[in-house]
Design goal:
The chain has 413 residues and is an alpha/beta fold. The protein has helices spanning 16-31, 46-57, 63-87, 119-126, 154-165, 198-206, 214-223, 276-286, 315-328, 356-366, 390-400, 406-411; strands spanning 3-8, 35-40, 92-95, 102-104, 113-116, 130-134, 137-140, 146-148, 169-174, 195-197, 227-231, 239-242, 255-259, 262-271, 294-296, 303-311, 333-337, 340-346, 373-377, 380-386. Bound molecules: adenosine-5'-diphosphate (ADP), aspartic acid (ASP) and magnesium ion. This is Aspartokinase. It catalyses: L-aspartate + ATP = 4-phospho-L-aspartate + ADP.
């Protein structure tokens, strides 16, 4: 018997009718003889609504309570789906993340899974049930408090469970047909990819392609879980994410990702002496803020500016440690820029093809987009641009590398 893990995202379970359609699909997998585990997200915009309600009560809700609140969304979905399956004569049991053995560290809002003890899930499967697990949540090993895995975290619940259960496949059902060469909501003629390597998908996700949470891809790569990203509204094949060596097509570029969730901070007039950068970034590391790009300018008169990007929501924590430190080291000031976006070009073929960055910068310059920061890895080039120009930048780069689906492009002409 094959073990199949299926994950349904928020839009896929967006209302009661969609939930019933998901139940039909799950019933089909169960009746087809698979041991089926289903991970569900909160319905539609439930998570946003819960965040908003808390924000209307408090500017800084206690993070323990916020986490418990947010897990409620997925619990509604899991029980409704179990009810819909029972209605179809399919035995089903739902479990919270904690009941399913998703053990995490204690970092509220972006906890990491440290262990999975899926005894109850396995027991219920062996009894012949479909098992439904609430996504996006776990329980802290140390504090025993309920945690959440960060936005988009149900993907990670699904892939981690697939790894722990030795599942044959992890299917991520979503509201698009698979992973595209760019966000199909911005680039209408973006092409669906048949296969993406873990490494490329890691870069795409880390650079803002929200179709898979980055940690889910990490789990997939570390435990060799094949991930099939596909639409919950059709039965067409989607995109497989797996090891580089299984890739058939050898494209140089996989796609363009963009991210509008970051801000840029600049510490001005920092004394250009050894140890200063270390002090700044050690202090930031203690606050659990994820720093992304870092640029240190050329110094003049013994002083320099250090800029870095960080998630916009983490600005208060970053400022709380940077402001006193800036005073201590006699820096001239701190400036925050919210009006930025990051555009990244990703592709394993870059390793062996020179000139990719030059072509990307050329495309941006022709489109009149100014580049504020640059960073690269062996398979990625990222630039920071003004947020107002992000769509223009994505379209220009997508176009320069001929990533469009010719058929879709012709149809829309
Ligand atoms: P779910 O609720 O199913 O988890 P998400 O909204 O988290 O869905 O992820 C799917 C969305 O990801 C798509 O609707 C699409 O707008 C966005 N997206 C961004 N980049 C890409 C990409 N390269 N390929 C496919 N989808 C992408
Ligand atoms: N409901 C959570 C979110 O909106 C988790 C998820 O959907 O993956 O981020
Ligand atoms: Mg998602």
């Amino acid at each position: 018997m094959a073990i199949v893990v299926q994950k349904y995202g928020g839009t896929s379970v967006g209302d009661v009718d969609r939930m019933k359609r998901v139940a039909d699909r799950v019933a089909r997998s169960h009746r087809g003889g698979n041991q089926t585990v289903v991970v569900v997200s909160a319905m539609g915009k439930t998570t946003d609504e819960l965040v908003d309600m808390a924000a209307r009560i408090s500017e800084q809700p206690p993070e323990r309570e916020l986490d418990i609140l947010l897990t409620a969304g997925e619990r509604i979905s899991m029980s409704l789906l179990a009810i819909a399956l029972a209605e179809r004569g399919v035995p089903a049991k739902s479990f919270t993340g904690s009941q399913a053995g998703i053990i995490t560290d204690a970092v509220h809002g972006k906890a990491r899974i440290v262990d999975i003890t899926p005894g109850r899930v396995q027991g219920a499967l062996e009894e012949g049930n479909v098992v439904i697990v609430a996504g996006f949540q776990g329980v802290s090993q140390d504090t025993k408090d309920i945690t959440t895995l960060g936005r988009g975290g149900s993907d990670t619940t699904a892939v981690a469970l697939a790894a722990a259960l030795g599942a044959d496949v992890c299917e991520i059902y979503t509201d698009v047909d698979g992973v595209f060469t760019a966000d199909p909501r911005i680039v209408h003629d973006a092409r669906k990819l048949d296969y993406v390597s873990y490494e490329e998908m890691l870069e795409m996700s880390a650079q803002g392609a929200g179709v898979l949470q980055v940690r889910s891809v990490e789990f997939g790569r570390n435990h060799d879980v094949r991930i099939h990203v596909r639409s919950s509204f059709s039965y067409t094949a989607g995109t497989w994410v797996g090891p580089e060596e299984d890739k058939v097509e050898d494209a140089i570029i996989s796609g363009v990702a963009h991210d509008t969730s970051e801000a840029k901070m600049t510490v001005h007039g920092v004394p250009d002496t050894p140890g200063v950068a270390s002090r700044l970034f050690s202090a930031l590391a203690q606050t659990n803020v994820n720093i992304d790009m870092i640029v240190q300018n050329v110094s003049s008169d013994g002083r320099t500016d250090i800029s870095f990007t960080l998630p916009r929501g983490d600005q208060p924590q970053a400022l709380s440690v940077l402001e006193p430190l800036a005073n201590e080291i006699h820096a001239e000031g701190i400036n925050v820029d919210d009006n930025i976006a990051k555009v990244s070009l990703v592709g394993a073929g870059m390793k062996t093809h020179p000139g990719v960055a030059a072509k990307m910068f050329g495309a941006l310059s022709t489109a009149g987009v100014n580049i504020e920061m640059i960073s690269t890895s062996t398979i990625r080039v990222s630039v920071v641009v003004s947020k107002d120009q992000v769509e223009q930048a994505v379209l220009a780069v997508h176009d320069a590398f001929d990533l469009a689906d010719e058929q879709v492009a012709q149809e829309s002409n």
